[in-house]
Design goal:
By secondary structure, the protein is an alpha+beta fold. It has six helices and four strands. The protein has a domain of 101 residues: GMP Synthetase, Chain A, domain 3. It is 51% helix and 25% strand. The protein has a four-stranded antiparallel sheet with strand order 2-3-1-4, covered by helices on one side. It starts with a helix and ends in a 5-residue tail after the last strand. The mean pLDDT is 78.
């Protein structure tokens, strides 16, 4: 009956024929008895298993790190000043950065990073009309970032008390974790 099905061209019979041929082809290469793996094969298998376990642990840590809530604070200082020379204003910007960094360290902020520094120094035309050629105006800002949010509030308050025009921004991101 099977031979008749194969001769008739039935689709199921053709599938059976190809499956049977495939199985017989690989049966010729199958070992007749099971051989015990060598010591080097066992060692390689153990090393591979350890590598897979380490990779699995790394993936778990990466997911845990990725799913953490991220919180940081940004402190901005607005710089507006008129001084006698270009050099004085450039020095003022650098001194302001140093002052903020030192104040942050004194408050215990270890990870205070200067994120942006944007300022322009232009000649002040209204002073030229009075005969002063070396007057310039400074306009800009400096931004710092830290993950120590509670201490950043204290830094912003102390910078305001020192006379700086200060802004404080708090950011919190909770990523989606699947």
């Amino acid at each position: 009956m099977l031979i008749n099905m194969i001769k008739s061209g039935d689709a199921m019979a053709k599938l059976f024929k190809y499956t049977l041929c495939f199985m017989l082809a690989f049966a010729a290469f199958a070992p007749l008895s099971y051989a015990e793996p060598s010591e080097t094969t066992k060692e390689k298998g153990q090393i591979h298993l350890e590598m897979v376990q380490q990779q699995s642990e790394r993936m778990k840590k990466m997911k845990a790190e990725r799913c953490k809530k991220r919180e940081n604070a940004t402190i901005g200082i607005k710089l507006i000043r008129t001084a006698g020379s270009f050099k004085e204003l450039s020095d003022y910007v650098q001194k302001t950065k140093i002052t903020i960094a030192e104040k942050g360290k004194s408050l215990g902020i270890d990870d205070l990073i200067s994120r942006n520094e944007n300022f322009s120094i232009r000649s002040a035309n209204n002073y030229r009309s009075m005969g002063n050629q070396d007057k310039y105006t400074l306009n800009g800002n400096i931004g710092f970032e830290t993950k120590m949010v509670d201490k950043a509030i204290e830094l912003a308050e102390s910078m305001s008390e020192m006379g700086y025009n200060t802004t404080y921004k708090h950011t919190m991101n909770q990523p989606r974790c699947y």
